[in-house]
Amino acid sequence: MIEVNELTKRYRKVNAVNGLTFTVRPGQVTGFLGPNGAGKSTTLRMILGLNDPTSGTATIDGRPFRDRPRGLRQVGALLDAHDVHGGRSAVAHLSALARSNGIPRRRVDEVLQEVGLAAAGRRRIGGFSLGMRQRLGIAAALLGEPPVLIFDEPINGLDPEGVLWVRGLFRRLAAEGRTVFVSSHLMSEMENTADQLIVIGRGELIAAESLAQFAARSTGPAVTVRTPDPAGLTTLLTTEGASVRPDEDGSLTVTGLDAARIGELAFHARVMLHELTTHTASLEKAFMELTADSVEYLAGAPR
Ligand SMILES: Nc1ncnc2c1ncn2[C@@H]1O[C@H](COP(=O)(O)OP(=O)(O)OP(=O)(O)O)[C@@H](O)[C@H]1O
């Protein structure tokens, strides 16, 4: 379990993290979400004892991480995939980590196999792609079979097969009862993986809830309708209290009535329908709405 209490980090000009309080529980995948610059990496570094908080505390299983003598056997973390010695091979890098953390040497081959790098184990890390470096970072995190795992933007640079693999891996680690905390700036990366979400913006907590609770915040389902008589159908549906928006491709997006009711109304009014499709609101959209006020770097909009 990871517990963060009133955690604050102030740099000279920026409040990178401001009074954050949340808990990350075992047996679940918890997504740590926020736009660029929200303070995710700074928070993770403080949890791992790599940065000192200005105030507040972060503990792993009840104690600050830097007090832990068992290192990689207690917590595995992927922070910056580039933060490894490029002149070494993957095997040499992992073997050194295993040695200094009292982990049996056989784990090196096991984790290389697990992350799909067995064939590249003897190659210099300097020649690895970003995706391969991410896999190596994940291998290092898994080396000591720790109960707590922390991954900062692990999906960056992975190919589609890698994305699927890593999602399955996180689910499996959680099912084994481990604490799995994964940061991302994209909701889409988390919606098929996370059970719980911690959302931050400008260093402050915006939401800490289950994915289901988060989904319930979004603005309800919309229905796409295609008809040869858009004007007639629009009048019919707005009279019944729906909002109808014409789309560029000639279809209508209807909110406020469900597909069954729209079909019924059209049938009774003898309006022909060519399409009637329900869309559940996208979580990405809900995430963007939720964090809109705290987006620091907005394309095309000087602030
Ligand atoms: N060493 C530092 N000195 C000064 N400011 C810093 C330092 N590290 C981070 N910051 C600032 O703190 C804020 C939070 O940065 P952080 O890297 O934690 O965000 P993030 O959520 O991980 O962002 P991203 O998704 O872009 O990685 C930013 O405004 C950043 O510029």
Number of E strands: 13
Structural class by helix and strand composition: alpha/beta
Strand order of the largest sheet: 5-6-7-3-8-9
The major pleated sheet works out as: 6 strands, mixed
Average of the residue pLDDT scores: 90
**What is the helical fraction, as a range of percent?**
25-40%
Q: Which runs of at least 5 residues are low in confidence (pLDDT < 50)?
A: none
Estimate the global geometry from the Cα principal axes. elongated
- Strand and helix order: EEEHEEHHHEHEHEEHEHEEHEH
Molecular structure report:
By secondary structure, the chain is of the alpha/beta class. It has helices at residues 40-47, 90-100, 106-114, 130-142, 160-175, 187-190, 211-217, 230-239, 259-268, 283-291, and strands spanning 2-10, 15-24, 28-33, 55-60, 75-78, 148-152, 179-184, 196-201, 204-210, 222-226, 243-246, 252-255, 275-279. Strands 5-6-7-3-8-9 form a 6-stranded mixed β-sheet, with helices on both faces. Strand 11 (243-246) and strand 12 form a beta hairpin. 37% of the residues are buried. The mean pLDDT is 90. The structure holds adenosine-5'-triphosphate. Residues 11, 14, 16, 34, 36-42, 185 line the site of adenosine-5'-triphosphate.
